[in-house]
């Protein structure tokens, strides 16, 4: 299958040139954001807005600044420009990598309880989050080092859900997960999103899943960032331009 999409004349660049209009229900507004490390500019003039309950996918080649942007959004990286969260927003962040040793002698349950303690969330949030992501209680009682890639990603998702965020920021939800597991994980995220009325901002390399699940797509890469619907952004022309090379992806049947 080939990607469906608008022609090259589609308005792909609407954000960088003109900020997205403020709407009722906008969760975050980002305008002219830039990030540099020393003399190296990683992000320049990034702008977009995310409406409540929608899914923004951030795509782009390795090193294009996707993780840096997520970290800027949660305030972990200094930036230029403005990032305005709606009052009352609570974010849950799932990093791409965890800076903990997987062979630490702690169980999934311990891990979730630690988050509840830090977030001052009630103990029942742990069970609730675990059940939401369909992680079996006996799996959560195992040491984190023996969990499969898919189980570990579910644990990370549960970790982010403890404290009841209104927005989930997810860096590569399917890293270390096989292809059927990726679909299942996206289904789970989608289900949790609908049930909890969450807004999702996720970084992904899985363009077919992005096509299926995202409401809007922000593409970082060579040239100016582009922002639009999956149909507008995920065209062979745009992808080739942003990645610097043609990228093939398959659209799964619904
Ligand atoms: N704290 C930091 N100090 C210096 N440079 C950094 C720092 N964090 C990220 N970078 C650099 O910023 C650039 C973008 O990194 P980032 O991790 O955001 O890329 P990415 O698009 O998420 O890549 P990937 O798809 O490989 O995960 C890289 O060149 C990286 O080395």
From TrEMBL:
GO molecular function terms listed in the Swiss-Prot or TrEMBL record: ATP binding
Q: List keywords of the entry alphabetically.
A: ATP-binding, Nucleotide-binding, Transport
Which residues does the UniProt record annotate as the domain ABC transporter? 28-247
Do you know which Gene3D superfamilies this protein is assigned to? Answer: P-loop containing nucleotide triphosphate hydrolases
SUPFAM superfamilies reported in the protein's UniProt record = P-loop containing nucleoside triphosphate hydrolases
> Does this entry carry the keyword Transport?
yes
Q: Which InterPro entries match?
A: AAA+_ATPase, ABC_transporter-like_ATP-bd, Metal_Ion_Import_ABC, P-loop_NTPase
Per its UniProt record, what Pfam families does this chain match? Answer: ABC_tran
The entry's family comment says: Belongs to the ABC transporter superfamily.
Protein's name according to its UniProt entry: Zinc import ATP-binding protein ZnuC
